[in-house]
Design a protein that fits this description.
The complex is a heterodimer of chains A (114) and B (120).
Chain A lengths: L3 E4 L2 E5 L4 E7 L7 E6 L6 E6 L5 E4 L2 E6 L4 E6 L8 E11 L2 E6 L3 E6 L1
Chain B lengths: L3 E4 L2 E4 L4 E8 L5 E7 L6 E7 L2 E5 L6 E7 L2 E7 L7 E8 L15 E2 L3 E5 L1
Parallel strand pairs in B: 2-11
Antiparallel strand pairs in B: 1-3, 3-8, 4-5, 4-9, 5-6, 7-8, 9-10, 9-11
Classes of the chains: A mainly beta (114), B mainly beta (120).
């Protein structure tokens, strides 16, 4: 049972364009929503994250929009660059006494053409 | 130090071999994780250690044996693996429990670069 649905599966954007990746979740126990960026052959790296009581968070060219009532959140990459070409995973975290349990979306492979 | 270091980066082994993957962090994190990632798929949780004790085993086959010798080290011992076990194995760490208060990002996972395992 997939608890975090991510779309699109792949995305091609021209340099300077806006990349938008969407995620939807079901479990209201999730309390934090990170996005990870992964380059080929590397581990996922935390890109940006948002709390459910905040509707938007911006860090440089990266913005998360969060709609708690709709249980949806999205990543916007402004002025997309070829160096942004990577796989992006949204995730939802549920904290437990034993650690943080992350549920990942299926990933979006972003290609930014020069 | 804000890194999770994994060794080796690449490992090729036969189905009868015994090998180990190693992970190290010096961020004071008391939760450590092993994930498995197949190509073009998200990471899948395998094990979680909290305070050096195994707290979560996601029904992983016994040919994978985790070990946490101390708060900074995490090992994954491999024995009698199958070709379908070939994958990128990721180690991660985080603060534990309710550190940082509710809705805090304090214990979001930090991943290592992974160990690429090929089973022949």
């Amino acid at each position: 049972q997939q608890q975090v649905k991510q779309s699109p599966q792949s995305l091609i954007v021209q340099k300077g364009g806006i990349s938008i990746i969407n995620c939807a979740y079901e479990n209201t126990a999730f309390d934090y929503f990170p996005w990870y960026q992964q380059f080929p052959g590397k581990g996922p790296a935390l890109l940006i994250a948002i709390r459910p009581d905040v509707s938007e968070k911006k860090e440089g060219r990266f913005t998360i929009s969060f709609n708690k009532s709709a249980k949806q959140f999205s990543l916007h990459i402004m002025d997309s660059q070829p160096g942004d070409s990577a796989t992006y995973f949204c995730a939802a975290r549920r904290r437990e006494t034993s650690g943080s349990r992350l549920t990942f979306g299926e990933g979006t492979q972003l290609t930014v053409n020069p | 130090d804000t890194e999770v270091t994994q060794t080796p980066k690449h490992l090729v082994m036969g189905m009868t071999n015994k090998k180990s993957l190693k992970c190290e962090q010096h961020m004071g994190h008391r939760a450590m994780y092993w994930y498995k990632q197949k190509a073009k798929k998200p990471p899948e949780l395998m094990f979680v250690y909290s305070y050096e004790k195994l707290s979560i085993n996601e029904s992983v086959p016994s040919r994978f044996s985790p070990e946490c010798p101390n708060s900074s080290l995490l090992n994954l011992h491999l024995h009698a693996l199958q070709p379908e076990d070939s994958a990128l194995y990721l180690c991660a760490s985080s603060l534990l429990g309710l550190a940082g208060g509710p809705h805090s990002g304090a214990n979001v996972l930090t991943f290592g670069a992974g160990s690429r395992l090929t089973v022949l």
